[in-house]
Amino acid sequence: MHTLINQLLSRADQIILGKSLQVRLAVCCLFCKGHLLIEDIPGVGKTTLAHTLAILMGMNYQRIQFTSDLLPSDIIGASIFDVDNHTFKFHPGPIFNQMVLADEINRSTPKSQSALLEAMEEQQVTVEGKTYPLPTPFFVIATQNPSHQLGTFPLPESQLDRFLMRIELGYPDHQAERELLKGLSRRSLIEKLTAHMSAEQLSVIQQKVIDVHVSDALLDYLQGIIAYTRISPDYAAGLSPRAGIALLHAAKAWAYMTNRDAVLPEDVQAVLPSVAGHRLKSGSHDSHAIVAPILENVPVF
Amino acid sequence: MDVLANRTLFVFLLTAIGLIALPHSNHLPSPLVIFFFIILIWRFIGIWYQRWLPGKILLYALTFTGLALLYQQHLGWLGRDPGTSLFMTALSLKLMEVKRQRDIYLIAYLAFIVAASQFLYEQSMFMAAYIVFVCSVLLAAMVMINSRHANIKASLKKAMTILMQALPLTLIIFVFFPRVEAPRWLLFEDPNRAMTGLKDSMEPGSISDLGLSDELAFRVKFTGTIPPVASLYWRGPVFSYTDGKRWTQGRHQGSGMTPSVSEFNGDVYRYTLLMEPQDKPWVYALDMPSEFSDELFQNADYQMLTRKAPDKRSEYQLTSSLLYNTGQLQEDEWVKNTQMPGAASPKIRRLIADLQSGTLSTEQFVGNIMRHFREERFSYTLRPPLMENNPVETFLFETRTGFCSHYAAAFVYLMRAANVPARVVTGYQGGTLNEVGGFLEIRQADAHAWAEVWIKGRGWVRYDPTAAVAPERIDQTSYFQQQFGYELAQLVPRRNLQGSFEWLKTTRELWRSLDYSWQRWVINYHSANQLKFLASLGISGLNKMIYWLIAGIAVFTAVLSGYLFRQRQKPKDKALQLYARFCKKMAATGLVIRAGEGPQDYAGRIKSVSPELAGPVDRITGLFIRYRYGKKPSGKDLSLLKAAISELRIKKGYSVKGKSRSHF
């Protein structure tokens, strides 16, 4: 199974150049059944990343471009009168896909945002009293522009919490940029991609992630981190219990991806910026800067 | 968090300092107190408007002003008051100069000193509680500096915990630390401080308004039953000489003569007497003391005097009997107690003749005088008219109003005019029973004057002419309390009067009882009492005291630290101990593990610097990880880990740092 994962990761690295950490985090997020928020300026490859992952995982993929006039029914679908049968028939919206890319989520109104986020949380959609389950696996990658840009409705903290991770892609480094400029267009590369994994294999992996061992010693460290965020004056509010669970799940997935059956403190540290960064309120907006005091001050032993 | 930019902390600290300095406004010169508070408020404003704080030159000017003010107010530097003022001024000026965190500590320590200096002025329980409170606020400010925490409530709670933890140690030190009595000149006592109490002379005619003070004179705790209030006469100075206006003690004073009491009868009352500080060595024993402790002695007038310094609170054990016979009167005593300022006027002689007619005994004569007072419209008042000339005659025939001194003086004058030995006795009468503490409180308002007449076969017999006029003055608890109650009745609606007054009374008694215990056990615990108390525990001598002090502190510290260590030390797992050994070994190479560093990261760091260690380091790290974080930690891994760490050898003088430097 691990060779499969490694193949998948190296294939993705060929498409998204020089961002292997972010790719790994995104895959990690997927393995622990979390949703991903990518925050960056337009054009750094957010959509490409989402699209690549969807194809490699063998999931059907749909992109929803969020705009300020997007309605909830544009996301979850609507009942339309069927002339032949004289009944209303539910036409599922783009959310009924295994992987949904919600592009520029903070450009739409809070109403549409919450339609998506509710579906994410419940794993199902209710229209006119009827409940439609969403496909499994179900994975949402949302992208957002930095909130200081014009025409944005920033996601409130409560909704940010629905995303297991938030990552930033950032500019490619010199080497990667050069390759990007020299190589073929990403679009054509994606078209040539084939699935490396099936939905069944993914659910096996997700199960195995759950089985990764967590020792008491590690929980001590994890709780140390949580306690630190709650008492430290660096943060306006500490990590919630849900955030703690998210951190543990992500660390498990990370440990699994590095082919280990037990979580190490390093696993927690690796996922900490992307899991905790958007949940902690601090002066900085950079996830790594936000969690730096934690990594520095919370003793591992 | 930048401590210096933390507004909450500053607000808190300045408030604490304001609270600490507040009681000093009672006893320090007001210009200095005003100076202090102006600077404090200035600093307060400076929290928000930094640029309004004084610059260097202005600060020098302020310092100079403060010191000049200090010198001008106290005319010197030495002593209690200037010293306290100096600390206050220094504290306020230091507030203006906070540049580093160190300065805040300095301010806090200065504030603690200022807080402690309150006890140089007042040692009441209330003040102690107040100081403890402000100290905990100050402590909370220090907690805030150190905990990187701006939460006031949490800091206060922590400060309280710290104070509570310090309590046992405080008790040990309080009990065992040798009390050193400072020489008097070191006490810097204000010589002008007036202490109220009875005077050594009496001049009833010159007083037109007897101020009643609620101030405590002394307290008495009886071991058995308490005698009836009407017989509670606390004997003070006895006046036998008069010039017609003024009554003073006789010339033959002091211990020249040992007094004799031929017999005591009736019930014996044992009691403990706690005198408040006063400026005379008088101890007010219940008439008539039969036994008393060594530091006391009796003068010829049966008044108790103390050999101790009277300006300190002190405690005495006494025994008294209400019935006694003083026996024969010496010749010189007879002369002394029939002394007259001159011949009595015809008017008085006529009155005496009137009162004496048909009487066979002195007792009957006294009874007639009493009846005269009672029936001839004499009245009792605390605001008598002035009787400058010939006060006795004016009182007896014209004004006919007065308080105890008037009656006692007039009565004795009449007796002496009839050639019966008589004298005025002053002291206190009655007292208020504190039902909570079971002791009597005798206040300045209970001051009284009565008369003694020598009767053949009975010795000196007490007669209280005031009782004839105003029996309630004697029989009831305290006349002052009646007045107090009367005033209250006019203020409070009648309906609620009884209930609320009872409530008030109980509260007051409870408080006074607490205060009694405080004075007795805490304030009065000076060197003599400490030695006595410790001797009763079998600890005698200064040496033993110090041993006990050291032992007490050592035991307490050991117990506390043992408890804390046990709390801190989690059941450390063995792998962690072994790993710590590994880290220590590696630290010798210059690579120290960081607080937030995982074992793998640490191993990676070591390997990147010294690749030749990769083998053992990887092995140790792997075993450690497997044991500590793995699914099934096995004892085998642990012993392997132990062996691997023991085998690990770092060459002496080997330094990774030095080695890595050689790469460049």
Kindly report the CATH topology of the largest domain in chain A.
Rossmann fold
Order of strands, widest sheet of chain A:
2-5-8-1-9
| Computed structural class of chain A | alpha/beta
Alpha plus pi helix count of chain A: 13
Number of strands of chain B: 19
Greatest contact between two chains:
A-B, 22 and 23 residues
The amount of beta strand of chain A, in percent, is: 5-15%
Shape of chain A: globular
CATH architecture of the largest domain in chain A: 3-Layer(aba) Sandwich
Question: Major sheet of chain B: order of its strands?
Answer: 9-12-6-2-17-16
Radius of gyration of chain B: 38 Å
Q: How big is the Rg of chain A? A: 20 Å
- From the N-terminal CA to the C-terminal CA of chain A, the straight-line distance is 32 Å
Given as residue ranges, the uncertain stretches of chain A (5+ residues, pLDDT < 50) are: none
Please give the largest β-sheet of chain A.
Answer: 5 strands, parallel
Written description of the protein model:
The complex is a heterodimer of chains A (301) and B (664). Chain A is of the alpha/beta class. Chain A is 48% helix and 14% strand. Chain A has 13 helices and nine strands. The model of chain A has no long low-confidence stretch (mean pLDDT 86). Chain B has 23 helices and 19 strands. In chain B, helix 19 (574-587) packs antiparallel against helix 21 (614-629), helix 19 runs parallel beside helix 22 (635-647) and helix 21 packs antiparallel against helix 22. In chain B, 51% of the residues lie in helices and 14% in strands. In chain B, strands 9-12-6-2-17-16 form a six-stranded antiparallel β-sheet. Chains A and B meet through helix 10, helix 12 and helix 13 of A and helix 19, helix 20 and helix 21 of B.
